[in-house]
UniProtKB/TrEMBL annotation:
NCBIfam families according to UniProt: NHEJ_ligase_lig
Record field: catalytic activity: ATP + (deoxyribonucleotide)n-3'-hydroxyl + 5'-phospho-(deoxyribonucleotide)m = (deoxyribonucleotide)n+m + AMP + diphosphate
Gene Ontology MF terms: DNA ligase (ATP) activity
Protein's recorded name: DNA ligase (ATP)
Entry similarity comment: Belongs to the ATP-dependent DNA ligase family.
Amino acid sequence: MVKRPRKPTAPLLTDDAVPLKSGRVRKRDPEQPELPFDPMPERIEPCLAKLVAKPPRGDEWSYELKWDGYRLAVHIETNRVRIITRGGHDWTHRFPGIEAAARRFMPNTMILDGEAVVLNEQGVPDFGRLQNSLGGRGGKLPAGNAILFAFDLLYLGGHDLTKMEYSARRHLLEDVLADSPGSIRVSEEFDEDPDEMLRHACAHDLEGIIAKHRDRPYRSGRTGDWLKIKCVQSDTFAIVGYEPSTALPGAIASLLLAARYRDGWKYVGSVGTGFKHDEARRLKKQLDKIKTSVPVVSVPGKSLVMTGPSFAAEIEYRAWTHTGTLRHPSFKGLREAEDWAEIYRLPD
């Protein structure tokens, strides 16, 4: 539709003989609205995906891959970059590659929501490699090889975008990151059958897929606006002890795990696979430093060494048994103990 041309306006009449001068500055009328700019928030509680068995269907849903790494919010301000973990810790110094890539957007301001990963030779996220890059649990090494897959845009150029629907935020995100440096990439959106997409993700050893409602604003917590469908279950549990190895001196045979339950902890089983000999010895040395005679949970068995819940492990498992323990668990790596938000919580 062609727009009708506007009528030309009369030129501004001025008296060249009269000097220009400004009028008296008036105080802002409190009845008038504030300037349409939003201050950048110090932190936004992340929107979390709710676990479901099957992906939803319908045009209102968007689908992308589920990344296996660390959830981060990248705050790009006019004069600095802050990289905040899901638990609210400032880890800017731990991800120098992502920070350097983010600085190239300055002085533009924005908040990117995404996942930091380290890829293996096949281009698949490897949580163990990410942990090794960070120096292991409690390590202080920077993960210079980490990549941020950004999947949401929460703030841009002085405007809070969290009240916008996801489809609009996604459109802006793709525009902003169209020519993004290599350490910050858009998490690709797929327009295909979600069951087929999940099958492909599982066949390529990926963690699963995420479904997001296109019409919803960004709401913190596990609201159901975002859903996750996993190939294999993977969650974080507290380590509350270990069983010593009888075959490998100075090593563990299995780790004892607990989940958050009400105001305390609940035992969810043990894991005895997924770690190599060197790691089994290193874990024993670390856990021996926090042994306790007052266990936080009751665990059946003999010759067990109990510890305080100061270490957190990422565990893969197939399902839950009828007794409330993990079925076929496998150790993936240690999580940062300071990020307690990651620990799995059992329903009441």
